[in-house]
Amino acid sequence: MIDHDHLLQMLTRLKLTAIRDQVDSLLDEAARRELNLREALVFLCEAEVARKDQRRIQMGTSIAKFPFVRTLEGFDFEAQPSLDPKQIRELATCRWIANGDTALLLGPPGVGKTHLAVALGREAIRCGYSTHFTTVAALMTSLSKAHLEGRLDERLTHFAKPKLLIIDEIGYLPFEPNAAHLFFQLVSRRYERGSLLLTSNRAVGEWGNVFGDAVVATAILDRLLHHSHVITIRGDSFRLREKRRSGLMQTAALASENQQPNNDRGVNSSCR
Ligand code: ADP
Ligand code: MG
Fold first, then answer.
1. Residue with the nearest Cα to atom 18 of ligand 1?
2. Whole-angstrom distance between the N-terminal and C-terminal Cα of the chain?
3. Whole-model pTM above 0.70?
4. Distances (CA, A) of 26 to 11, 35, 53
5. Which residues surround ligand 2, an ion (CB under 5 A)?
6. What is the mean pLDDT of each run of 10 residues along the chain (272 residues)?
């Protein structure tokens, strides 16, 4: 006679919580499918691995501090013809993170840079890489404060830790004096250790102005561009375009009741 409680205790001790919580239904299912012992063991392990993966992704996502939830599946590639979906799909494999490369997403406001940065961050977590998201403004405030308080080294170590650091919105605000040096120290600290994903509304040629120091900007770019994937997005703001389109559709609907439905908003699900 098998002691059910004893089984549950062992599963708890081995931290096989998915198997423990569903042991009856899993065993019933294994019996129903007439699995042999080896197949049943695989079936049970799969349930446990799936639960552990799900937990890991949840935990990694909450640590990453993304500003919003966005996915590659939710990105409309047809609305953004300047972007090569193949290039994004390649980044979604996370090979670039394994290599410690840099990715730059460049383009005007509203074209989906932050959306893609978050979506690629999610893929990084799925691939098992620790990920942290920050705006450059928050990053620089944190580094400057630490510098003033004599804790810069500790702070640089903190931002050097995640395997992928996403720094959003470079170029919207000019750097404070001395901030370029702090940024340079961060880039040097991470260089060839972890990946950076940067977004900017400015072409890299303009980064001398953004950083307020052409010499430091060159040194930063030298490291960033060494092993890099640069993606330049062109076109109108997605948000403004959506607004304009709905405005147009209303006018057109008033003009003609037999108007063809506007069908080019379909979400491209083949992006991965
Ligand atoms: P950026 O960071 O380039 O200024 P965002 O990524 O914040 O732009 O995009 C603005 C909004 O429009 C976000 O809510 C984003 O999800 C959405 N968006 C932008 N481009 C697309 C797209 N091609 N498909 C779906 N949503 C998009
Ligand atoms: Mg943005």
1. 112
2. 50
3. yes
4. 14, 11, 18
5. 114
6. 90 97 97 98 98 95 97 94 95 97 96 97 97 98 97 97 98 91 96 93 94 93 93 86 67 44 35 30
